[in-house]
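Cross-posting from the modeling subforum.

Setting up a comparison between two proteins and wanted a second pair of eyes on the formatting. Protein 1 (sequence, then structure tokens):
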Amino acid sequence: MSRSTRKPKRIPQRTCVGCRSVRPKRELVRIVRTPEGCVAVDETGKRSGRGAYLCPQSSCWEKALSKGHLGRALRTSVTVETRSRLREYAADLRPETGAFEKGVGEDE
């Protein structure tokens, strides 16, 4: 097969549990429920466990946390402590660009 007839590389798409918009996987933040049962931000996107994706906008995070969408997607109950830690992480997101200022939110 020559280079000109190759198929373009497929970009994986994921749905934000907050706003339900479909975006490329790399543009979203993965939240994971590990096999041990703790919920944490997965910045690498490679931790084992059940994952859910959120847009890097604090409004999506607030909606997912307040309405229970995140817990439903992860099939677990999100504790008050975890919810506050995730809200802190969301507060560090810059809403105008969707970029991160700093990373926080890993479970010990």
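Protein 2 (same layout):
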Amino acid sequence: MNDRLLSRALRHKSFLIGAVLTLALGLAALLSLWWTPYPVAEIDIPAKLQPPSASHWLGTDSLGRDIVSLLLVGAQNSIVVGLIAVGIGLVVGVALGCVASARRGWVEELIMRASDFTFAFPALLSAIMLTAIYGPGLVMSIVAIGIFNIPVFARITRGAANAVWARDYITAARAAGKGPLAITLDHVLPNIASQLIVQASISFATAILAEAALSYLGLGTQPPQPSWGRMLNEAQTLMFQAPMLAVYPGVAIVLSVLGLNLMGDGLRDLMDPKLARQR
């Protein structure tokens, strides 16, 4: 079974492209933990706005900082935000969705209406509210994006779990004396895991995009920590003098989001053979 899945994955162009781009994002973040061409906080005003050269492969910004170094550490920041924010949504949202599906009735209605209410506060609006109370920063961005992910995972989990609860083997498990918790852990979660994995990869891309938007507005990652969104913000005043300063972080964001979305789309096809045959 694993060999067949691997064989199909190697033939799936969207999945392969997405996996390569996502791997590149991960390697860039991993590399920045040990090495960058220059320290990201090193300011060299005489060397500001230099074009690409042997010493600065992509040039320098308005403070003389090396662009490659900023992009590498910015990848690290994007992955941290994505992992934690998606983790919050995954853990809390899946738990709520499983409870709603297992209990049904007023419990399900309460959880779903609470999810609808949370959808009224997108990540950007939540970040603005949290910033007004606690001040801007990376933690507030993670919390805001994580809260937005909770109802996403709750609704997907509830819908997928309801389909599993209607199966005959669930009736047999109930007849055998299994309780809702045991059935959820032994039967429901394993059968909806593939859908949750696909959604996690797509939500990861959304989290990277949301973090970049929040940093661009000054609500996310704060100086001196590099961020692709803040690099775009700093470049907007130099569009005619050094337009490439906006291109580099913009391309990094686009490739990262594209890679995760393509990989998520490929995973959906690979884990559902019916979709793969339709293509």
